Amino acid sequence: MTLARRVSEHGISEIIHFTTNRGLLGSLHSKHLLSRPLLSRDKYLRHVLQLNAAVRPEESALFDKSQDWLRFVNLTITEVNRRFLDASRRWHPNDIWWCILSFDPAIIGHHGVWFATTNNGYDSCARAQGLLGFDALFVQRIARKRSGFDGRPWSVSRGSRPSHLPTCEQAEVLYPEQLSLDHLRTVYVEEDEHHDTVVGWLSDYGYDDVRVVVGRQKFVGRQN
């Protein structure tokens, strides 16, 4: 069984990443979605790009250092990580707006990709590569944290989630270094006026084949 076959069996049609309008514009300029350490290398990007959060748990000295996890782009399968999106909305000022970048699921099979069973910052997150790592996202129960809000271990069950969604809504696809926008297929926005802006930006940077969709429901996610 190949990874591509398994992805097809699950009916997965998109791998997504949410960002701000400034993040989208900076990505179009660089032609890539960049991991955090690469953002500061370009003088233009330092002024245009805006991180989704002030800090990431991966920056902590106590975090698992088997890989430099900050050098990976954090993506999700089919739906956004609503908890992280809500936190990002609270952290950012009101003069920005949000969009979701949807990539061809074939990127899952690229060299160096890892799969995280839950939020990569959680202490019970398990990470692996290849078919083994992918299948681990869909098991019946996923551990999130050793100690949750009530002091007990925090986990989540698969329940009735459809096959194209991982068991944990916060499961991640970790893409190394930078992801080429050649694999970008759709940009989702929440407002009609943002649609026209994004269409113009895509045209300016030569991405005329990328669809722009006003899809407010896409920003809701599928929480569990």
If you had to describe this structure to a student in words, what would you say it looks like?
The structure is a single chain. The protein has one domain (3-52, 74-219). The longest helix is centred in the C-terminal third of the chain and has 13 residues, at 192-204. With 224 residues, it is an alpha+beta fold. The chain has an 8-stranded mixed sheet with strand order 6-5-9-3-1-4-11-12. Strands 2-10 form a two-stranded antiparallel sheet. A two-stranded antiparallel sheet has the order 7-8. Helices cover 25% and strands 24% of the residues. Helix 7 links the parallel strand 11 (184-189) and strand 12. It has 7 helices and 12 strands. The relative contact order is 0.21.
Supply the key terms:
single chain, 224 residues, alpha+beta, 8-stranded mixed sheet, two-stranded antiparallel sheet, 12 strands
Written as H for each helix and E for each strand, in order along the chain, the element string is HEHEHHEHEEEHEEEEEHE
Number of structurally distinct domains = 1
Radius of gyration: 17 Å
Number of helices: 7
Percent of residues in beta strands? 15-25%
Major sheet: 8 strands, mixed
On the 0 to 100 scale, the average pLDDT is 88
What is the molecular shape? Answer: globular
Report the uncertain regions.
none
Helix content percent band: 25-40%
Structural class: alpha+beta
